[in-house]
Amino acid sequence: MESQRNLILIGLLFVSFLLWQQWESDKAPKPAPTTVAQTEHFVPEAGQTGDIPQVSEQANANTARKLITVTSDVLKLTLDTQGGDIVSAELLAHKLEEGKDQPFVLLTSQPEHLYVAQSGLVGRNGPDSQPQGRPTYEATQTSYQLADGQDQVVVPMTWTDSKGVVFFTKEFVLKRGDYAVGVDYKIDNKSAEPVQVQFYGQLKQTVATPKDQQGHAMVASAYRGGAFSSEDTRYKKYTFDEMKDADLNKTTKGGWVAMLQHYFVSAWAPNADDTNSFYSRVIPGKDQAIIGYKAPLVDIAAGQQAEVTSKLWVGPKLQDQMAKVANHLDLTVDYGWLWFIAQPLHWLLTVFHGFVQNWGLAIIMLTLLVRGVMFPLTKAQYTSMAKMRMLQPKLAALRERFGDDRQKMSQGMMELYKKEKVNPLGGCLPILVQMPIFIALYWALMESVELRHAPFALWITDLSVKDPFFVLPILMGASMWYLQKMSPTTITDPMQQKVMQFMPIIFTFMFLWFPAGLTLYWLVSNVISITQQTIIYRQLEKKGLHTRS
Question: What is the pTM of this model?
Answer without folding.
Answer: 0.78
